[in-house]
Inverse folding.
């Protein structure tokens, strides 16, 4: 250890204190992100540095393990810039996974990458002698920035831009958007396929259709499905699908269904059509009592 009684620096050459601090910060950041609620100040502080500084610092430590490679200010500036690159790559990879970009997947990805980068950084430093390794240094104010005023201004501007860009990226990743909201209405034949629908019936015959609804609205949704021949004049209660429904030009049937986000409803409805002819059987979906564009239908010939 050097003595701190001059304009030199306080430093440690034997132990990678900066890498140890990186891991400790990462562990604490993951814990507070899980334990503390959204918007908590401590959670924001730890999460922001985990996203915009720590991964890049570890990567810089791999690329420049020695103390003579780059200066402290360049090392800090590159840490912010490379963190944006690392986190962007992680986000791109997560976007193609089944879980997508969520808080848990982002935390897990960052923590795993951080451990891997830190191990490689430690291995790179071990290849150098103690005197050659980069180590924690607490520089005096006059040695922190370049001596030239133009260089100082340039370094400060770059650092500010990188920090602001990193903060924006951290906010986007910590609060991912909901994505596209939509619902899905579909019908299947009695075998669960979309191939063998009953398209020809007799006046005393029946047909069975599986009706399905998928909710991708990011909230609980109250659906209503109305089933019957197109332009039927009366809507009746159709909540009991254990019975056989009779579809005529005078009546249709409705059923209320409530689903959470990513919820799925499927049930079999059995019906007959007593009137001969060609009929358009329609399944129409309503959301919160409002008619939507979601509609499926079958043309059925009755003899």
């Amino acid at each position: 250890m050097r003595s701190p009684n001059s304009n030199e620096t306080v430093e440690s050459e034997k132990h990678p204190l900066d890498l140890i601090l990186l891991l400790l910060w990462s562990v604490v950041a993951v814990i507070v992100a899980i334990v503390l609620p959204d918007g908590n100040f401590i959670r924001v502080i730890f999460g922001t540095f985990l996203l915009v500084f720590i991964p890049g610092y570890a990567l810089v430590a791999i690329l420049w393990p020695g103390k003579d490679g780059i200066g402290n200010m360049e090392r800090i500036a590159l840490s912010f810039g490379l963190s944006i690159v690392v986190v962007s790559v992680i986000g791109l990879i997560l976007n193609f996974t089944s879980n997508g970009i969520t808080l848990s997947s982002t935390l897990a990805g960052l923590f795993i990458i951080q451990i891997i980068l830190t191990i490689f950084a430690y291995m790179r430093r071990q290849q150098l002698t103690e005197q050659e390794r980069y180590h924690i240094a607490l520089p005096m104010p006059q040695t922190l920035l370049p001596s030239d005023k133009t260089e100082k201004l340039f370094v400060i501007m770059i650092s500010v831009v990188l920090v602001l860009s990193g903060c924006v990226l951290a906010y986007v990743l910590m609060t991912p958007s909901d994505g596209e909201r939509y619902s899905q209405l579909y019908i299947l034949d009695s075998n669960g396929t979309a191939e063998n629908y009953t398209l020809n019936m007799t006046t005393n015959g029946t047909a069975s259709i599986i009706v399905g609804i998928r909710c991708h609205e990011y909230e609980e949704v109250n659906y209503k499905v109305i089933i019957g021949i197109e332009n039927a004049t009366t809507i009746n209660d159709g909540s009991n699908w254990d019975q056989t429904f009779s579809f005529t030009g005078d009546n249709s049937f409705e059923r209320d269904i409530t689903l959470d986000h990513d919820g799925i409803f499927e049930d079999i409805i059995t019906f007959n059509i007593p009137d001969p002819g060609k009929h358009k059987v329609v399944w129409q979906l309503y959301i919160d009592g409002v008619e939507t564009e979601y509609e499926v239908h079958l043309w059925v010939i009755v003899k």
